[in-house]
Design a protein that fits this description.
The structure holds two protein chains of two kinds. By secondary structure, chain A is an alpha+beta fold. Helices cover about 30% and strands about 35% of the residues of chain A. Chain A is built from five helices and seven strands, in the order αββαββαβαββα. Chain B has twelve helices and 20 strands.
Chain lengths: ~170, ~450
């Protein structure tokens, strides 16, 4: 093969890895958040009773977080009523917040970028938005907020976190 | 031209015998009509004479209290792959096949300027294509590239790619060369349903999707690095994980569209973590609770601490940090005093751990005469690990959380926190229970039967 005759595409530089840092902010709507506090008895067993009740109602759970006296999780808005009925016998102190949104801040390898999660959370708190819950995956940070607050938070975070990035 | 990129890990080039077996695989590919391009890691794993850790120790032995300069460190550790590439090329030569060794920069791999953790920004493969067209087998150093930034550094600065760098090199070269396949050779048969150290007979998955392999790699599986899987996915390069030392067919990594249906893929475990849960119920007002939260996260950002498995509730917030970063956290948070402005004369005093340190007690005694002191205690759990269930189109099923929590509760394994994604569900457990947790979940989800 003569390199001089190579297809030009083959000698061109190719762009590769996803750029480090925050790449985008996204919002997903249509959730209700279930908060359960002050569970009676041994906490792990009490949480399990709640999850069992939800499972038996055939409801899928996302974003489960354990709190010192209970737990919280997300269901779709359409399941809010069903989950309220299901947990009623096993959780006397519960609340369901409908019309929640998940705000996602995407950043490749976010957990390995030193200080990045702390930086984002600080920026989020400083927007003054009430954060119902927060969580992380290897490539994103997720926050649960009221659906009506989500567009404002999305805009503010995009301005603060994506400024100066391509 | 049918190009195949063949990447050999440390154990596949560790000894003359291993290199010979690896070389025979390259020659076999050539005999099948492929034009092989080889990528090699440094010779051997931790403790071996030319392994990356051994090279770093050369500097640590001079004075362990002086951190090496990242630029110099990259120059040093890159020697491991250079040596390996030259030795492998010569091995091929002794078998009658002309081969040429290339440093990452010589192979056209350009990176950003982050020493020790560079990312590939572009590859110009012309030197490799010239080598192939000249009848040679190129042998490229994995894990390294070159950063060129203007006339101040005409030759460029050598950079290394960080963890999983050689896999990343293999996948990126596969994309640049429009390879027919990229094969990652290692010392296991392919992608397994769990770490064989935890589940001895964990089966090998014959097919996994790019998303699945990226997820399990991010969550602790060491067989292929997620950066490599992401590049292969982006460019649609067929990727295989195979065992250098057996004839097992290995694991093929395919697009999601080639694998309809749902399943649990595997169970992983990763991380030496410390979990902190801050009790914010003592805040005098909502504004002061927010102030405390802000201060916690601001401090973590300022000191570059990595955070995992966050949670936030009206009365608490928590996260896990890598064990090696915990001393920083303790140093900056234990005894931290936050005064409230105005006429309140109230101060908050952070206390890490159930028992107050001498520093916290001293602060409390000194501050007590000035006004009200409210403690912000952080419950501390040292020695934690993240155990994750990874699945394909599975996590949205009702009952997944329940089944995981139930299995662990039955075995009396305490779950400290959870996190979940479209592809995985992770639980934070104590390190001493992590292998038992992996085995339990592996059994509960029937992973011994998958293929």
């Amino acid at each position: 093969m003569n390199v001089a005759n190579l297809n030009p595409q083959q000698t061109q530089e190719t762009e590769f890895e996803k750029r480090r840092g925050i790449s985008r902010v996204e919002v997903r709507y249509g959730f209700a958040q279930v908060h359960i506090t002050n569970l009676d008895g041994e906490i792990q067993a009490a949480r399990l009773r709640v999850l069992k009740a939800v499972n038996e109602a055939g409801i899928s759970v996302d974003f489960l977080k354990l709190t010192p006296t209970g737990l919280s999780f997300l269901v779709t808005n359409s399941c809010a009523e069903g989950v309220a009925t299901a947990i009623q016998p096993v959780a006397s102190d519960s609340s369901i917040r409908p019309e929640r949104a998940i705000v996602l801040v995407h950043a490749v390898n976010i957990r390995d970028e030193e200080g990045l999660i702390g930086h984002i959370v600080r920026e989020v708190i400083e927007t003054g938005t009430t954060i119902d819950h927060i969580g992380d995956m290897h490539d994103r940070l997720l926050m649960i907020v009221s659906a009506k607050d989500a567009p404002r938070l999305e805009k503010l975070l995009a301005e603060k976190l994506l400024a100066g990035q391509e | 031209m049918r190009i195949k990129v063949m990447k050999f890990g440390g154990t596949s080039v560790a000894t003359a015998e291993a290199r010979m077996q690896s070389a025979m695989r390259v020659i076999s590919a050539k005999d099948q009509g492929f034009r092989p391009v080889v990528v090699v890691s440094a010779i051997g794993r931790k403790g071996a004479p030319y392994a990356t850790d051994t090279l770093i120790n050369l500097l640590n032995e001079i004075d362990p209290n002086v951190d090496p300069d990242p630029r110099e460190l990259d120059l040093l550790v890159a020697c491991g792959e250079i040596l390996s590439a030259v030795v492998f090329a010569h091995t091929l030569k002794t078998l009658g096949h002309s081969a040429m060794a290339f440093r990452g920069g010589q192979a056209g791999i350009r990176t950003d300027g982050v020493y020790g953790n560079a990312r590939i920004v572009s590859i110009n493969p012309v030197a490799l294509l010239k080598s192939i067209s000249g009848g040679h087998i190129p042998v490229v150093c994995g894990f390294q590239g070159v950063f060129v930034d203007g006339p101040g550094m005409p030759g460029g600065e050598l950079t290394t790619l960080g963890r999983g760098g050689s896999d990343t090199t293999g996948a990126a070269l596969g994309a640049a060369l429009k390879a027919e396949a990229v094969e990652i050779f290692t010392d296991v048969d392919g992608v397994k349903t769990a770490d064989p150290d935890a589940v001895r007979n964990a089966p090998t998955l014959r097919t996994v999707t790019y998303d699945e392999v990226a997820e399990i790699a991010h969550l602790g599986a060491k067989v292929v690095h997620p950066r490599a899987a992401e590049i292969a996915m982006m460019y649609g390069i067929p990727l295989w994980v195979k065992n250098t030392f057996t004839d097992d067919e290995g694991t093929q990594i395919v697009p999601k569209s080639d694998f309809p249906g749902r399943r649990v893929t595997g169970v992983t475990h990763t991380g030496k973590l410390v979990y902190l849960q801050f009790d914010l119920s003592g805040a005098a007002s909502e504004a002061e609770r927010v102030m405390l939260e802000t201060r916690i996260y601001e401090t973590m950002a300022r000191y570059d601490v990595n955070l995992f498995m966050l949670d936030m509730s009206p009365s608490s917030t928590g996260f896990a940090v890598p064990r090696d970063q915990y001393p920083i956290v303790e140093n900056v948070l234990d005894g931290l005093v936050i005064p409230v402005g105005g006429a309140e004369r109230r101060v908050y005093l952070f206390q890490v751990g159930r028992n107050a340190s001498r520093e916290v007690e001293t602060q409390a005694a000194l501050l007590g005469s000035l006004g009200e002191v409210r403690r912000v205690p952080a419950e501390l759990t040292e020695g934690c690990t993240m155990v994750s269930l990874v699945g394909h189109e599975y996590m949205q099923q009702p009952g997944v959380f329940y089944n995981v929590m139930h299995a662990l509760a039955e075995a009396q394994i305490q779950v400290l926190q959870t996190s979940d994604s479209d592809y995985s569900l992770s639980v934070l457990v104590t390190e001493s229970e992590s292998l038992r947790a992996v085995r339990l979940l592996h059994d509960r989800f029937g992973l011994s039967e998958v293929s």
